[in-house]
Structure formats: structure tokens, C-alpha cells
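Order emerges. For instance:

***
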Amino acid sequence: MTSPLPERAGRRCHNRLNPLHSTHYFSPDLGRELAALGVGDPTAAYLAARAAAMGAVDAGVVTATFYNFRPGLVARHVPAVWETASPAVVLTARLRAVDATLRRLLGEEVRTAEEVAEAAELALVAAEACTPVARPLYAAHAGLPVPEEPHLALWHAATLLREHRGDGHLAVLLAAELDPLEALVSHTATGKGMTPQWALGTRGWKRAEWDAAVERLRGRGLLDGDGELTPAGAALRREIEAETDRLDRAPYAHLGAAGVERLTELAGGLAGRALAAGAFPAGMTGKG
């Protein structure tokens, strides 16, 4: 009989796996690959790389599924980017960038390391229990083939698990009546998300729009006069994460407690090495 999952075991596993997926977004390898296709703008490269699995979708689809980007920023690049590079070409370039990024951060041995192959196998088993219903980004990526090389298969599985959790998270944000910018502001206030400077710089919002969202959250009693979470705001963010955990329970329950513990250990070791190798920019997260 499978042992029950400890509380937050799925979240802990996700938090170790997700950096392995996210490294390529901050990698010069992705910029180089997309620039070679004519997509030189970093925002356009990010939007194209993450959205390509859905096909040549328009700005509305990308804005809806990414949630916290300013619609005008998305519309500046989508759908025009598909005229420069088709989704299929972008996906191939993205995988080349992931391969180069993981080899650069984790060493050439990442291609043959036993722990990488084991982690890939465990993560793919977990992903078997992901469901596509009302999860568009997950569903799009689930239709892509699993790469043969273990390090790329691990990245693919981490991507499936990340987008599955992320799609569910957006449903929770809607239920909490947090619009895209309010969700971004309140997450930043936890100290666990991007700094306001990073959020403004990458998501396209204007300072006046940010300040207006702060005022709306204050009006709901979720932020105090200093922009910090009130007890009610902190409780709401905890509830959001707990409900996201509930909607994302299936893959980790399918893998089982022992498998989740082992995958968390393996992914944590790999993510730690990537972080130590400079996978992410300094000062990106925190309250700023």
C-alpha cells in the first residue's frame, strides 16, 4: 500500500524541480538560439519559447494563460513573432537552448549521470497523473514528444509538472478575486516572488498601475500602509498555496511518498548546483 503523502510534499518537490525548468529563461543560450532566428528582443523570446507549444496563438491567448503580463506588452510581440519564427522552429531552438544550458550549469556529465536518469524516470511517472482539463499550458506541452536524452527528459517532465501546477494556480487566483497585477503585487509582498523592480521590468506594468493595485489591496484589508501583507493578506496567500497544492496533488500521489521524497532529493541536488553556477540573476527575488 502506498504511504500517504506528507503535508506539502508535492509543493516541496515542485519547488526543487521548477528551477530546472526555469533556468533556460535566464540563459544566454536561449537568447542566442532565438536571436539566430530573428527574435532578438528578450521579452519576445520568452513569450515565444513558453507559448510555442500552443501553436501560433494570438496575444489574447498568451495574456490569458500567462496571467500576470501587461496585455500591451504581450501584444507588442504576439502574434508578430510567429511571422519571424514558427512555433515548431521555436520549440526546436528552445530544446537546443535547454541542452546547452543544463550542460553548462551542471557539466557535460549531466547527459549520462545516473541520478539524472533516475530523476527523469520519477518525474515522468508523476506526470502520468497530470490532467489536461482546464489546464491549457500543461495540455499543450503534454502533446510534445518526450526527449530521448535523460537530462532533456527530466527538463520536459519538470515543464509538465510546472505548467500543470501553474494552470491550477491561476484558477485559485481567480477564485480569490485577485486580478493579474494584484496577484503579482501580493506575491511580491510575501518576499518569495520577484522584487517589484523585476516584476515591473519584465511584466510590462507601469508604476502608476502597480500603485493602483496596491491601493485596491489596501482597500480589501490585504496590505497595510507600508505595502506589507496584513494578517488577512498573509492568510489569503497561505490559502492560495494550500488550494494550489490540493489541485496539484494527483501527480505526487501517483508517484507515492517514497518516490516524491527521492525525486525531491535528486532535483534539489541538481537545482542547488545550477543555482551555485549562477543560473539566476542576483537580486531577482525578495522584497527589493
